[in-house]
Amino acid sequence: MASDPDHPKPKTSRHKCPACYKQFNRKLHLIEHMKISYHSVHQPRCWVCQKHCKSFESVREHINSPLSKTNCSKIFVEQGCNLCLKVLDSPSALKEHKQMCCLVAPAPLGTKITPCIESNVTMSGSIMDEMHNGKAQKAVAMDCEMVGGGSDGSIDLCARVCLVDEDENIILHTYVQPQIPVTNYRYEVTGLTEDHLRDAIPLNEVQDKIKKILYNGESVGRIPPDGGKATLLAGHDVQHDLDCLRMKYPGFLLRDTAKYRPLMKTNLVSHSLKHLTKTYLGYNIQCGIHDPYEDCISVMRLYRRMCGQDHQQVFRLGDEKANSGFDSFRSMELEKKAPDELYEISTSDYKCWCLDLTKDCNPGS
Protein backbone atom coordinates (compact mmCIF):
# COMPACT_ATOMS: atom_id res chain seq x y z
CA MET A 1 0.00 0.00 0.00
CA ALA A 2 1.47 3.34 -1.06
CA SER A 3 2.02 5.96 1.60
CA ASP A 4 -0.17 9.02 1.66
CA PRO A 5 1.93 12.06 0.62
CA ASP A 6 -0.41 14.32 2.56
CA HIS A 7 0.14 12.32 5.76
CA PRO A 8 3.84 11.24 5.83
CA LYS A 9 4.93 8.60 8.32
CA PRO A 10 6.32 10.32 11.43
CA LYS A 11 10.07 9.93 12.01
CA THR A 12 11.08 7.77 14.94
CA SER A 13 13.06 9.64 17.60
CA ARG A 14 16.41 7.90 18.10
CA HIS A 15 18.56 7.98 21.20
CA LYS A 16 22.26 8.58 20.54
CA CYS A 17 25.08 7.45 22.81
CA PRO A 18 27.19 10.54 23.60
CA ALA A 19 30.36 8.43 23.78
CA CYS A 20 30.43 6.01 20.82
CA TYR A 21 27.56 7.61 18.84
CA LYS A 22 25.53 4.42 18.42
CA GLN A 23 21.82 5.11 18.03
CA PHE A 24 18.88 3.26 19.52
CA ASN A 25 15.16 3.36 18.86
CA ARG A 26 14.26 3.04 22.55
CA LYS A 27 15.68 4.83 25.57
CA LEU A 28 15.78 1.49 27.41
CA HIS A 29 18.16 0.10 24.80
CA LEU A 30 20.45 3.11 25.20
CA ILE A 31 20.49 2.60 28.97
CA GLU A 32 21.38 -1.09 28.60
CA HIS A 33 24.13 -0.13 26.16
CA MET A 34 25.59 2.37 28.61
CA LYS A 35 25.56 -0.25 31.37
CA ILE A 36 27.65 -2.76 29.43
CA SER A 37 29.91 -0.40 27.48
CA TYR A 38 31.51 1.20 30.57
CA HIS A 39 32.11 4.46 28.75
CA SER A 40 34.23 6.95 30.67
CA VAL A 41 36.68 9.79 30.19
CA HIS A 42 39.46 7.20 30.36
CA GLN A 43 38.49 5.36 27.18
CA PRO A 44 40.67 5.88 24.09
CA ARG A 45 39.00 8.25 21.67
CA CYS A 46 39.36 9.93 18.29
CA TRP A 47 40.92 13.38 18.71
CA VAL A 48 38.86 14.71 15.81
CA CYS A 49 35.27 13.64 16.54
CA GLN A 50 35.83 12.48 20.17
CA LYS A 51 34.25 9.07 19.52
CA HIS A 52 35.05 6.62 22.34
CA CYS A 53 36.59 3.24 21.47
CA LYS A 54 37.51 0.08 23.43
CA SER A 55 41.21 0.33 22.61
CA PHE A 56 43.73 2.42 20.73
CA GLU A 57 43.66 -0.22 17.99
CA SER A 58 39.95 0.54 17.61
CA VAL A 59 40.78 4.23 17.29
CA ARG A 60 43.29 3.41 14.54
CA GLU A 61 40.66 1.38 12.73
CA HIS A 62 38.21 4.27 13.08
CA ILE A 63 40.72 6.70 11.58
CA ASN A 64 42.24 4.49 8.87
CA SER A 65 39.39 2.21 7.87
CA PRO A 66 37.90 2.69 4.37
CA LEU A 67 34.59 3.13 6.19
CA SER A 68 35.92 5.81 8.54
CA LYS A 69 34.53 9.30 8.55
CA THR A 70 36.13 11.35 5.78
CA ASN A 71 36.65 14.33 8.08
CA CYS A 72 38.47 12.28 10.75
CA SER A 73 40.74 10.60 8.20
CA LYS A 74 41.56 13.81 6.35
CA ILE A 75 42.36 15.84 9.48
CA PHE A 76 44.41 13.02 11.01
CA VAL A 77 46.52 12.58 7.86
CA GLU A 78 47.34 16.29 7.90
CA GLN A 79 47.71 16.91 11.65
CA GLY A 80 47.79 13.57 13.49
CA CYS A 81 50.61 11.69 15.21
CA ASN A 82 50.57 8.03 14.18
CA LEU A 83 52.11 6.96 17.51
CA CYS A 84 50.03 8.60 20.26
CA LEU A 85 47.12 9.46 17.90
CA LYS A 86 46.97 13.09 19.05
CA VAL A 87 45.92 15.78 16.59
CA LEU A 88 48.02 18.95 16.65
CA ASP A 89 47.02 22.49 15.74
CA SER A 90 49.48 23.02 12.88
CA PRO A 91 52.03 21.17 10.72
CA SER A 92 54.89 22.85 12.60
CA ALA A 93 53.45 21.78 15.97
CA LEU A 94 53.01 18.25 14.61
CA LYS A 95 56.62 18.11 13.41
CA GLU A 96 57.92 19.25 16.81
CA HIS A 97 55.63 16.80 18.61
CA LYS A 98 56.75 13.83 16.47
CA GLN A 99 60.38 14.52 17.29
CA MET A 100 59.54 14.03 20.98
CA CYS A 101 56.99 11.23 20.54
CA CYS A 102 59.13 8.94 18.38
CA LEU A 103 61.76 7.53 20.73
CA VAL A 104 65.19 6.05 20.09
CA ALA A 105 65.76 2.38 20.83
CA PRO A 106 67.92 1.75 23.92
CA ALA A 107 71.31 0.12 23.43
CA PRO A 108 70.92 -3.56 24.43
CA LEU A 109 73.16 -5.03 27.10
CA GLY A 110 73.97 -8.01 24.92
CA THR A 111 74.96 -11.40 26.25
CA LYS A 112 78.43 -10.66 27.53
CA ILE A 113 79.01 -12.58 30.74
CA THR A 114 78.98 -9.89 33.43
CA PRO A 115 78.67 -9.95 37.21
CA CYS A 116 75.43 -9.00 38.88
CA ILE A 117 74.60 -5.31 38.42
CA GLU A 118 72.83 -3.93 41.46
CA SER A 119 72.23 -0.28 42.32
CA ASN A 120 71.25 1.34 45.60
CA VAL A 121 67.50 0.68 45.74
CA THR A 122 66.67 2.49 48.98
CA MET A 123 64.37 5.43 48.35
CA SER A 124 65.23 8.71 49.96
CA GLY A 125 63.07 10.23 52.66
CA SER A 126 61.92 13.05 50.38
CA ILE A 127 60.67 10.55 47.79
CA MET A 128 58.79 8.61 50.44
CA ASP A 129 57.27 11.83 51.75
CA GLU A 130 56.01 12.63 48.26
CA MET A 131 54.40 9.18 48.01
CA HIS A 132 52.62 9.52 51.33
CA ASN A 133 51.51 13.05 50.44
CA GLY A 134 49.57 11.60 47.53
CA LYS A 135 51.96 12.23 44.67
CA ALA A 136 52.99 9.67 42.06
CA GLN A 137 53.75 6.20 43.34
CA LYS A 138 57.08 4.91 42.12
CA ALA A 139 57.26 2.13 39.53
CA VAL A 140 59.87 -0.30 38.27
CA ALA A 141 59.81 -2.42 35.13
CA MET A 142 60.93 -6.05 35.07
CA ASP A 143 61.67 -8.55 32.32
CA CYS A 144 62.96 -12.12 32.43
CA GLU A 145 64.49 -14.39 29.81
CA MET A 146 63.63 -18.05 30.02
CA VAL A 147 65.48 -21.22 29.12
CA GLY A 148 63.84 -24.62 28.88
CA GLY A 149 63.74 -27.48 31.34
CA GLY A 150 62.15 -30.90 31.36
CA SER A 151 62.56 -33.78 28.90
CA ASP A 152 61.28 -31.72 25.96
CA GLY A 153 62.61 -28.33 27.13
CA SER A 154 59.11 -26.87 27.43
CA ILE A 155 59.29 -25.84 31.11
CA ASP A 156 60.11 -22.11 31.40
CA LEU A 157 63.02 -21.48 33.74
CA CYS A 158 64.14 -17.95 34.56
CA ALA A 159 67.79 -17.59 33.54
CA ARG A 160 68.14 -13.81 33.34
CA VAL A 161 66.31 -10.93 34.98
CA CYS A 162 66.49 -7.15 34.69
CA LEU A 163 64.75 -4.33 36.57
CA VAL A 164 64.88 -0.63 35.69
CA ASP A 165 63.47 2.47 37.37
CA GLU A 166 61.34 5.24 35.87
CA ASP A 167 64.47 7.07 34.71
CA GLU A 168 65.57 3.96 32.81
CA ASN A 169 68.45 3.22 35.16
CA ILE A 170 69.30 -0.41 35.84
CA ILE A 171 68.35 -1.41 39.37
CA LEU A 172 69.20 -5.07 38.99
CA HIS A 173 70.57 -7.25 36.21
CA THR A 174 71.77 -10.78 36.79
CA TYR A 175 71.86 -14.30 35.43
CA VAL A 176 69.84 -16.78 37.46
CA GLN A 177 70.75 -20.36 38.28
CA PRO A 178 67.72 -22.54 37.40
CA GLN A 179 66.62 -25.01 40.07
CA ILE A 180 66.38 -27.93 37.66
CA PRO A 181 68.70 -28.94 34.81
CA VAL A 182 68.46 -26.90 31.59
CA THR A 183 67.64 -29.04 28.54
CA ASN A 184 67.18 -26.23 26.02
CA TYR A 185 69.01 -22.90 26.25
CA ARG A 186 66.82 -21.49 23.44
CA TYR A 187 69.96 -19.85 22.13
CA GLU A 188 68.32 -18.33 19.03
CA VAL A 189 66.11 -16.20 21.30
CA THR A 190 68.04 -15.88 24.57
CA GLY A 191 71.62 -15.92 23.34
CA LEU A 192 72.46 -17.87 26.49
CA THR A 193 74.79 -20.83 26.87
CA GLU A 194 75.96 -23.02 29.70
CA ASP A 195 78.80 -20.56 30.39
CA HIS A 196 76.35 -17.76 31.23
CA LEU A 197 74.73 -19.79 34.00
CA ARG A 198 77.81 -21.53 35.40
CA ASP A 199 78.37 -18.86 38.09
CA ALA A 200 74.83 -17.46 38.09
CA ILE A 201 73.15 -16.38 41.32
CA PRO A 202 70.82 -18.97 42.95
CA LEU A 203 67.12 -18.30 42.51
CA ASN A 204 66.45 -17.72 46.23
CA GLU A 205 69.09 -14.96 46.37
CA VAL A 206 67.59 -13.32 43.29
CA GLN A 207 64.16 -13.47 44.92
CA ASP A 208 65.51 -11.68 47.99
CA LYS A 209 67.06 -8.93 45.86
CA ILE A 210 63.83 -8.38 43.94
CA LYS A 211 61.75 -8.31 47.13
CA LYS A 212 64.06 -5.67 48.56
CA ILE A 213 63.42 -3.53 45.49
CA LEU A 214 59.67 -4.05 45.30
CA TYR A 215 58.67 -3.91 48.96
CA ASN A 216 61.14 -1.13 49.86
CA GLY A 217 60.92 -1.91 53.58
CA GLU A 218 57.18 -2.66 53.58
CA SER A 219 56.25 -5.78 55.53
CA VAL A 220 55.62 -8.64 53.11
CA GLY A 221 51.99 -9.70 53.31
CA ARG A 222 50.94 -6.52 55.13
CA ILE A 223 50.87 -4.02 52.28
CA PRO A 224 48.17 -1.40 52.95
CA PRO A 225 45.41 -0.73 50.36
CA ASP A 226 47.26 2.33 49.02
CA GLY A 227 50.42 0.30 48.43
CA GLY A 228 52.37 1.94 51.25
CA LYS A 229 56.09 1.95 50.50
CA ALA A 230 55.81 -0.89 47.97
CA THR A 231 56.44 0.04 44.35
CA LEU A 232 54.34 -0.59 41.25
CA LEU A 233 55.70 -3.37 39.06
CA ALA A 234 55.37 -3.00 35.29
CA GLY A 235 56.00 -5.78 32.81
CA HIS A 236 54.72 -7.55 29.71
CA ASP A 237 52.81 -10.64 30.87
CA VAL A 238 54.41 -9.82 34.20
CA GLN A 239 52.55 -12.56 36.09
CA HIS A 240 54.32 -15.18 33.96
CA ASP A 241 57.69 -13.67 34.91
CA LEU A 242 56.71 -13.77 38.58
CA ASP A 243 55.58 -17.38 38.25
CA CYS A 244 58.93 -18.35 36.72
CA LEU A 245 60.69 -16.54 39.56
CA ARG A 246 58.39 -18.41 41.96
CA MET A 247 57.29 -15.12 43.48
CA LYS A 248 53.99 -13.51 44.38
CA TYR A 249 53.14 -9.82 44.31
CA PRO A 250 49.80 -8.09 44.95
CA GLY A 251 47.72 -7.80 41.79
CA PHE A 252 46.74 -4.19 42.46
CA LEU A 253 50.42 -3.21 42.24
CA LEU A 254 50.97 -4.86 38.83
CA ARG A 255 50.92 -2.88 35.58
CA ASP A 256 50.85 -5.30 32.63
CA THR A 257 51.27 -3.94 29.09
CA ALA A 258 50.01 -7.29 27.73
CA LYS A 259 46.67 -7.01 29.57
CA TYR A 260 46.05 -3.27 29.80
CA ARG A 261 42.72 -2.76 28.04
CA PRO A 262 43.62 0.27 25.85
CA LEU A 263 46.74 -1.51 24.53
CA MET A 264 44.98 -4.75 23.59
CA LYS A 265 43.50 -5.75 20.26
CA THR A 266 39.92 -4.83 19.44
CA ASN A 267 38.85 -8.35 20.46
CA LEU A 268 40.75 -7.92 23.77
CA VAL A 269 43.61 -10.27 22.83
CA SER A 270 47.12 -9.21 23.83
CA HIS A 271 49.61 -7.65 21.44
CA SER A 272 53.28 -8.62 21.57
CA LEU A 273 55.71 -6.20 23.22
CA LYS A 274 57.50 -5.95 19.87
CA HIS A 275 54.29 -4.72 18.22
CA LEU A 276 53.42 -2.28 21.01
CA THR A 277 56.92 -0.79 20.98
CA LYS A 278 56.89 -0.22 17.22
CA THR A 279 53.30 1.07 17.17
CA TYR A 280 53.39 3.40 20.19
CA LEU A 281 57.08 4.27 20.65
CA GLY A 282 58.32 4.18 17.07
CA TYR A 283 61.28 1.80 17.17
CA ASN A 284 62.03 -1.90 16.77
CA ILE A 285 63.06 -4.40 19.45
CA GLN A 286 63.68 -8.16 19.51
CA CYS A 287 65.16 -8.12 16.02
CA GLY A 288 67.44 -10.97 17.00
CA ILE A 289 68.28 -12.08 20.51
CA HIS A 290 65.78 -10.83 23.11
CA ASP A 291 67.45 -8.43 25.51
CA PRO A 292 65.76 -8.02 28.94
CA TYR A 293 67.14 -4.50 29.40
CA GLU A 294 65.74 -3.41 26.04
CA ASP A 295 62.37 -4.97 26.90
CA CYS A 296 62.36 -3.34 30.36
CA ILE A 297 62.94 0.10 28.89
CA SER A 298 60.14 -0.40 26.36
CA VAL A 299 57.71 -1.54 29.07
CA MET A 300 58.57 1.47 31.23
CA ARG A 301 58.14 3.86 28.30
CA LEU A 302 54.76 2.36 27.43
CA TYR A 303 53.69 2.59 31.05
CA ARG A 304 54.76 6.22 31.35
CA ARG A 305 53.08 7.13 28.06
CA MET A 306 49.80 5.63 29.27
CA CYS A 307 50.20 7.36 32.65
CA GLY A 308 50.77 10.69 30.93
CA GLN A 309 47.35 10.87 29.30
CA ASP A 310 45.38 13.89 30.44
CA HIS A 311 41.88 12.67 31.20
CA GLN A 312 39.63 15.39 32.54
CA GLN A 313 37.46 13.80 35.22
CA VAL A 314 33.72 14.48 35.08
CA PHE A 315 31.94 15.58 38.25
CA ARG A 316 28.28 16.49 38.61
CA LEU A 317 27.60 18.75 41.54
CA GLY A 318 24.44 18.52 43.62
CA ASP A 319 23.82 14.81 43.08
CA GLU A 320 25.21 12.39 45.68
CA LYS A 321 24.60 9.47 43.33
CA ALA A 322 26.64 10.96 40.50
CA ASN A 323 29.60 8.85 39.38
CA SER A 324 28.47 5.97 41.60
CA GLY A 325 27.31 3.73 38.72
CA PHE A 326 23.95 2.72 37.29
CA ASP A 327 23.06 0.40 40.15
CA SER A 328 22.50 3.43 42.39
CA PHE A 329 19.50 4.51 40.30
CA ARG A 330 16.07 3.03 39.77
CA SER A 331 14.91 2.27 36.21
CA MET A 332 12.46 5.17 36.23
CA GLU A 333 15.21 7.58 37.27
CA LEU A 334 17.43 6.40 34.44
CA GLU A 335 14.62 6.75 31.90
CA LYS A 336 14.32 10.44 32.80
CA LYS A 337 18.02 11.18 32.33
CA ALA A 338 19.39 12.71 29.15
CA PRO A 339 22.14 10.80 27.27
CA ASP A 340 24.81 13.17 28.61
CA GLU A 341 23.62 12.51 32.17
CA LEU A 342 23.82 8.77 31.59
CA TYR A 343 27.39 9.22 30.41
CA GLU A 344 28.29 11.15 33.56
CA ILE A 345 27.32 8.22 35.81
CA SER A 346 28.98 5.62 33.59
CA THR A 347 32.21 4.24 35.09
CA SER A 348 35.15 2.37 33.58
CA ASP A 349 35.58 -1.37 34.18
CA TYR A 350 39.37 -1.08 34.39
CA LYS A 351 41.73 1.20 36.25
CA CYS A 352 43.29 3.79 33.98
CA TRP A 353 47.02 4.16 34.60
CA CYS A 354 46.71 7.94 34.54
CA LEU A 355 45.24 7.56 38.03
CA ASP A 356 48.65 6.40 39.29
CA LEU A 357 49.64 10.07 39.14
CA THR A 358 46.67 11.37 41.13
CA LYS A 359 46.22 11.68 44.85
CA ASP A 360 42.89 9.94 45.27
CA CYS A 361 42.98 6.75 43.27
CA ASN A 362 41.69 3.32 44.19
CA PRO A 363 44.13 0.48 43.59
CA GLY A 364 43.28 -1.85 40.76
CA SER A 365 44.80 -3.53 37.75
Give an account of the 3D structure.
It comes from Gossypium hirsutum (Upland cotton). Keywords: Exonuclease, Hydrolase, Metal-binding, Nuclease, Nucleus, Zinc, Zinc-finger. By secondary structure, the protein is an alpha/beta fold. Helices cover 32% and strands 13% of the residues. It has helices at 27-37, 56-64, 70-79, 91-101, 125-132, 187-190, 194-198, 203-215, 238-244, 273-280, 292-307, 331-336, 339-345; strands at residues 15-16, 23-24, 117-118, 139-149, 155-164, 170-177, 182-184, 201-202, 232-235, 254-256. The strands form 2 sheets. Strands 3, 4, 5, 6, 7, 8, 9 and 10 form an 8-stranded mixed β-sheet that branches. Strands 1-2 form a two-stranded antiparallel sheet. The protein starts with 14 loop residues before the first strand and ends in a 20-residue tail after the last helix.
